[in-house]
Amino acid sequence: MSTFNTFAKESTTKLNRAGGEAFALTPELELYTTVVTASLSNKFYETASERIDRIASLVGRCDAHFVAQLAVYARQKMNLRSVPLLLVVELAKVHSGDDLVSRTVEKVIMRADEIMELLSCYQWRNKNNISGTGGNTPKKLGKLSHQIQVGLQRAFNKFDEYQFAKYDRDGLEVKLRDALFLVHPKAKDETQQALFDKIVNRTLETPYTWETELSALGQKVFGSEAAKKDSFAAKWEELIESGKLGYMAMLRNLRNFLLFDISRDKIKDVADRLSDEYEVYCSKQFPFRFLSAYKELKPIANGKTTILLDALEKAVLASAQNIDGFDENSRVLIACDVSGSMRSPICRNSSVENYDVGLVLAMLLKNRCENVVSGLFGDTWKVINLPSSGILSNVDALYAQAGSVGYSTNGFKVIEYLRTNNIIMDKVMMFTDCQMWNSYSTGQTIRKEWDEYKKIAPNAKLYLFDLAGYGAVPLDIVREDVYLIAGWSDRIFEILTAIENGSSAIEMIRKTEI
User: Fold this and answer.
1) If you average pLDDT over residues 283-309, what whole number do you get?
2) Using one digit for the tens of pLDDT, what is the confidence trace for 370-411?
3) In the sheet where 461-466 sits, what is the strand order?
4) In whole angstroms, what is the distance from residue 248 CA to residue 112 CA?
5) DSSP 435
6) Residue range 231-251, pLDDT digits in tens
7) Consecutive H or E run containing 472
8) Residue 50 is assigned to a structural domain of this protein
9) Residues 6+ apart with CB under 8 A from 415
10) Domain count across the chain
């Protein structure tokens, strides 16, 4: 195991947020699990501000180079957007003397709007009042970190007119023009200088996007609702045919395609793109995005709905192709936590919960295993055998069974079942928020059950997939048979592969180039 994968000496006395036995993590491990499960919104056991403050505190306790690597890993591998920017801002407070921060900024800024978002985050966390030179408002923020400024100067050189115009919006606290004046990027040639001049003069060419096209159409007056529906249907078909409708935009608007009743031919074109393996790979979608779309479409009474549902199954299956599974010689048990605390939305205004994330990741892994038992745990543990194919429909089947196991977090019931039935497993995978406790008050814990189980299955290994990042785990992972993995992306399975090869999550992050 990694030298970072250790605990504080007093860790055995810690209680988790549900009041159960827990073990504290090292600062690096806690920061990792907290960051890769952070959408910076309220959780069941923690508010957004509490999590942000905890991240800030952990940044000060961790090695600066590791923090920088984690920020790049979270952005480029885990496809998170806001939390890597927060890491950079907090790192700039505690680290200076070299160009580590500027190099990190350059790597985490992957979209033009993240320039403005980083400045907004800096303003908020440093309690400065950022504004540009527009109107009669004087320029403020005289104390912008030099290294953040340098990193943003380089970031400005990464984007073209379309990318800038797409995010040059009114209503933002820090606008693109403000950012240009604050950062003072140096144009690399005359063409780019002309582009910067357009930003200053607000003369960027309006980009062709689904938002701008539909917004323009929405300004028109129609003679009837039928005429309006036909016009929007035609516009959606034009956008689809243009090839300029991005994968995420397409995924977000599947419901609209059906509600506006676009043609079957265009629905089939969308389905082909949705299920294309290369498109899926390039889109870098979280697996739960496919589930969210699937849930939205299922109730729609339209003869073309099944075309898109089938495409979503193929898409999420494509996202599983790069997961290293286990052959028939590896006996695997997959257990999904469906407790009440798992029903917390992952971000504001989202219908997706940690519960959903755990189920879809579990079914992705199940698809790649040849000898696997799956089930749910809450008050009790229940085996639910499902086919390997149909990842999203399997999640649907698990939804129907969730209430049958109750809503506590008695994770020990999973191991008790294996022990009392003398079932030998090589790997036990638990998708959970790690807030284990005993609702029966019998004194049993998952740690005690695991110790007893190891007497009949000495080679068994337990993998905790932490979906909430509250900073504690129910077993001491210093031991060689318990491993911790965290996050919402299918990329977490790369860490599983690293563990199988004798590495760890922390060691994998430490290989990230800055």
Assistant:
1) 94
2) 999 999 999 999 999 999 889 999 999 999 998 999 999 999
3) 381-383, 372-377, 332-337, 427-432, 461-466, 482-486
4) 17
5) -
6) 999 999 999 999 889 999 999
7) strand 472-473
8) no
9) 428, 446, 449, 450, 452, 453
10) 3
